[in-house]
Amino acid sequence: MKDATLKQASKLLLLFGDTPSEQLQAILASGLLADLRDANIANINRDEFRKMIGLKPLNLAEESASFYVQTLTYWINFWHTLGIAEPVPGFTRFEERPGYRPMLFPKSKIITAEWLFQRCQERFTCWKYTDKSLDQMVVRNDRDPGNGAYVAWFRDRVEADEELANRSANELQRRAISGITLAERLVLELDYFSRTGKHLDIRSITLCSGSRCGDGGVPCVAWARRRDGRPLVRSGRLGRPPSVPSAVCLVTRSFNPFFPLNRKR
Predict the structure, then answer these.
(1) Could you tell me if residue 171 is left (phi over 0), alpha (psi between -120 and 50 degrees) or otherwise beta?
(2) Do both 240 and 126 map to the same domain?
(3) Higher-confidence position of 91 and 189
(4) Which domain holds residue 175?
(5) Residue 28 and residue 75 in one domain
(6) For 118-162, what is each residue's pLDDT tens digit?
(7) What are the two backbone dihedrals, phi and then psi, of residue 237, each rounded to the nearest 5 degrees?
(8) Inside any domain, residue 21
(9) Contact predicate 93/71, CB 8 Å
(10) What angle do CA 99, 144, 100 make, to 5 degrees?
(11) What is the pTM of this model?
């Protein structure tokens, strides 16, 4: 291999020409340039390298398409695992949004709160505050997959949105903050459990402010432990479910908190 030429060296100097001296000194001191010099450059994916050091990929369109396809594939498999045969449709292509996780709903009359609660029961211990069907108790939902497919974005976190703590469902409605529905919250639980084997809302209770019971009450969902130590997912209505510590706070999860609704094309 030939030694570096003066022309190549001048290109390297031009590359760092506008770099602040402090940044240049930090780069030299880190040893990263020496690592790059000795690396097999042919085996390095530049976009992956940029992502590793906190930079955006050069090919944003390709990155966006990859995230969209991966997300679509995941939710197709998720719904098939639950026994939903309806296809997840193509949506307006969306990009990854750090800190948020998209949830894709196909159009299906089968996907209701009671049906989802039963799917939870098949996978882990659950309790609900009524012997009646949740579909009888919850009479209004801001969104319903029975009316059409949609994408919902929620913050990707274990606890409900602390930014909205100590706010009632009526206050959220006055502020035009659309909260999570009971069905969406149960899907969040199933999704998180399938990926991690763990549960959501360990310290808080999700106030499902996107749903209403027949008497105007607001359903809520939380995780707790039974006396024998086994985990228990509780689905109740506002009016604290039994055995849930009074120290936990009732909080909603805001639906598409900053992004427009992704409708089917």
Answers:
(1) alpha
(2) yes
(3) 189
(4) 60-263
(5) no
(6) 999 999 888 888 889 999 999 989 899 999 998 888 888 888 766
(7) -125, 165
(8) yes
(9) no
(10) 5
(11) 0.65
Q: d(Cα 68, Cα 94) in Å, to the nearest integer?
A: 6
181 Cβ neighbours under 8 A, 6+ residues apart: 113, 141, 142, 143, 144, 208, 210, 211, 255
Residues 40 and 64 in one domain: no
Chain mean pLDDT for the chain = 75
Domain co-membership, 88 together with 39: no
Whether residue 65 sits in one domain with residue 40: no
50 domain residue, yes or no: no
Strands 231-237 and 262-263: unpaired
| Number of separate domains in the chain | 2
